[in-house]
């Protein structure tokens, strides 16, 4: 039990750094949140067309875990954001994530160049699905593969 507690405890020095950050409120649906900006800063859109998006970025220190690898939470966030962006590239309005399934196949190290490709699988009513593939740009090795379901913006019959 102590190991679990230790894994969820932030060191006092780290806590002071986080507490010192100025996080300004944002307007939901209009501005990126602090979290989105934190995770997406440095990402480059390499190719975009309806239903497809290809991005790349270099793994920064802020998104690594204690072992210097791209953190699982950062991978999940990138699957969410890049998957949703592929739907937006098709001209659809913003939708809400309802389900994500991510296979963590390998890892990326600090400084690795990563490619993230997302394609829309289809739409049914207000439901949309995407497939997101993250791989090491240099080696081609798959880091993670995700399926992402989103829902929203049905026309109201009221």
Structure description:
The structure is a single chain. With 158 residues, the chain is of the alpha+beta class. Helix content is 25%, strand content 34%. It has four helices and six strands; from the N terminus they run H-H-H-E-E-H-E-E-E-E. The protein has a six-stranded antiparallel beta sheet with strand order 1-2-4-5-6-3, covered by helices on one side. Strand 5 and strand 6 (142-151) form a beta hairpin. It is globular and about 50 Å long. The protein starts with a helix and ends in a 7-residue tail after the last strand. The model has no long low-confidence stretch (mean pLDDT 84).
In summary, what is this structure?
The chain has about 160 residues and is of the alpha+beta class.
Order of helices and strands: HHHEEHEEEE
Uncertain stretches: none
- What share of the residues lie within helices? 10-25%
- As an assembly, this protein is single chain
Broad structural category: alpha+beta
Can you tell me the overall shape? globular
Please state how the strands of the largest beta sheet are arranged side by side: 1-2-4-5-6-3
Terminal Cα span: 52 Å
The radius of gyration over CA amounts to 17 Å
**What is the residue-mean pLDDT, rounded to a whole number?**
84
Number of strands: 6
Strand content: 25-35%
State the major sheet: 6 strands, antiparallel
How many separate helices? Answer: 4
């Amino acid at each position: 039990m102590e190991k679990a507690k230790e894994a969820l405890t932030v060191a006092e020095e780290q806590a002071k750094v986080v507490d010192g950050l100025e996080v300004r409120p944002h307007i939901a649906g209009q501005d990126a949140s602090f979290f989105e900006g934190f995770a997406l800063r440095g990402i480059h859109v390499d190719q975009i067309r309806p239903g497809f998006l290809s991005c790349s970025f270099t793994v920064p220190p802020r998104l690594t875990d204690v072992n210097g690898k791209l953190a699982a939470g950062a991978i999940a966030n990138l699957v969410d954001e890049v998957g949703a962006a592929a739907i937006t590239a098709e001209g659809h309005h913003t939708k809400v994530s309802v389900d994500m399934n991510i296979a963590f196949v390998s890892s990326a190290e600090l400084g690795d160049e990563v490619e993230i490709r997302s394609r829309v699988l289809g739409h049914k009513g207000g439901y949309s699905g995407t497939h997101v593939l993250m791989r090491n740009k240099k080696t081609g090795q798959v880091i993670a593969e995700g399926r992402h379901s989103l829902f929203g913006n049905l026309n109201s019959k009221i």
